[in-house]
Each structure stands twice: as structure tokens, then as C-alpha cells.
Amino acid sequence: MNMAVLRRLLGLFIPLLVMSACELINPEEAIPAYLRVEPFTLTTTATQGSNSQKITEAWLFVDDDFLGVYALPATIPLLVTGEGTIRLEPGIKDNGIASTPEIYPFYQPFTQTVTLAPDQTVTLRPTTTYKPTTRFALIENFERGSHLFPFLVSGTDVNRITIVGGVDAFEGNGSGLLRVTTDAPLATIATGARFRDLQASNINVYLEVNYRAEAPVVFGLLAYNQVGQASNGDIVFAAGFNASPTWNKIYFNLTQVLLERQPAEFQLLMQTALPAGENGQPAPAAANIWLDNIKLVHF
Predict the structure, then answer these.
(1) Phi/psi at 233 (5° precision)
(2) In the chain, where are the structural domains located?
(3) Which residue, among 132, 98, 95, 136, has the nearest Cα to 255 in the 3D structure?
(4) 135-298 — its CATH code?
(5) Beta bridge pairs of residue 163
(6) 55 and 92 in contact (C-beta within 8 Å)?
(7) Of all residues in the chain, what percent carry a pLDDT higher than 70?
(8) At the topology level of CATH, where does 33-129 sit?
(9) Is the peptide bond between 105 and the residue preceding it cis, with omega within 30 degrees of 0?
């Protein structure tokens, strides 16, 4: 091969080599598809109580591959194209704590088959219901003339829960009101009914509560070691919420406290106290706690 031919071949080969090297160093970036996920809505039946919910996240699966947890609403870039099945598991804050996101075991996942394309957005408006196997040991919506929390463990008649309506009601005609004052600064209230065997089929037991509060509240159990025991039970606290000027919802996970305590039966318990003054301010003369849609759920 003469030198002229060799130089011509090198002139063709070297630019191709340089172009290939550039493509390896700076490869063309894939263009994502986008999934827009709107907040969940919950549909309930007449026997399941309110459709109030606080689903804060979606746990995303695409064709059964887990792709992350996203605060709602969310626009999610996906390096996935073509037809696929989207599954969104409704997520909550366990015990209202931001650092403990969990899939709520009693809500149905939302699934939909979509076609994803680069630089295109698919919008989902997920819906959910309670799973058919969900059981409700207690539903208290304070819509009757009486309620399921008449048991006064400590406090006075001033502290007994009353039913209020009008602007004080979360929804419907009534909500429960628990009040503490300087004359009755501590209140511990429990259900009249006792519960047992809620974990016989599955370990998950949760308490759902809508609330607006001027003082912190803790929830727990009045636990009994023997069925039908006449003496007072042991008070076991699980979790609580802080004061909130607006209505909020919380999901209390009672699973661990029930596993640890293993009571033969128990009453649901709530306790509050008149707050002390802060930053040199005098303590308030009274504090109100409004409650609604209390549900004790299990499988």
C-alpha cells in the first residue's frame, strides 16, 4: 500500500474514531416520560363512616417494579416507555410523624394501564376504597344523641365529651368536644366498650381520628390482663397529636403496643391536660379539643 492511499484511509478513520469517543464520553441523554399524580380520593360505604382521609404520598410501582415514594401531588419523570401497569399504594404518615411514611394497609391500591412516551405527560387521578377484608371495631361520628366515649377514668363531669354542632362540627351535624379548665385541668376518657382479639387474623390495628385542638392529646389503651377483670386496667399510651388550629386527620398505629402488651381486652383511651403558659404568658383558662370520625380498624 503506497503512502498516498494510507494517508487517505487514516483521514477517513481518525474522525470516525474521535466521534465514537465523544459519544462514549457524552452519550445522548434519554428523554423521560412524565407521570402526573393528583391527590387520592376515598370512597366509603354507609357502614364505613366518613370518606375523610389524609393520604399524603403515593408508593409507585410500574409493572411491579418499585420506583419510589412521592408526596402528592407529584410530577414524576420516568425512563420507561411503552405500555405498562401503574400501581399506586396510598401512603400515610404513621402516627402523624413525617419520618415514618407507610403504606396504609386498609386502603386499596390504585392500578391503571398507561402508555408512556418521551416528553409526554400522563395524568392520573387515583381513587381508593377500604379493602373488603377491613373490619371496623368502632366508628364514632358523633351524629347521634350519645357517643361511645362515656367512661371517665380521671377528671370531673366538666371533662365529659359533649356533642356540638354548627361551625364546631367537622362535617355532618356534630363533633365531639372535650374541654379542660383551670378547675378541671386533666381529663382521661375511655370507651365504654372493651375490645379483644383484634389481631387474630392480622397484626395491623389502627385508630383514625379527625381533630382540632387547643391542647395536646395522647391516645392509648386501658389494658386488662384477664377478660372480665373488675379492677381498673393499666394505662398504656401509644401516640398523640399536638394542638392544631385547623381540622386535621391522624392514623395511630396501635399494632406495636398491642403486640408488646398483649392485653386480654382493652378500652380505647385519650388524655389531655390544660397547657402551661409559654414565653412568660399566663396559662389559658380553658382548652377545647374537637374530635370526629374516630375509627378502630383491623382485619
Answers:
(1) -80, 175
(2) 33-129, 135-298
(3) 95
(4) 2.60.120.200
(5) 176
(6) yes
(7) 89
(8) Immunoglobulin-like (2.60.40)
(9) no
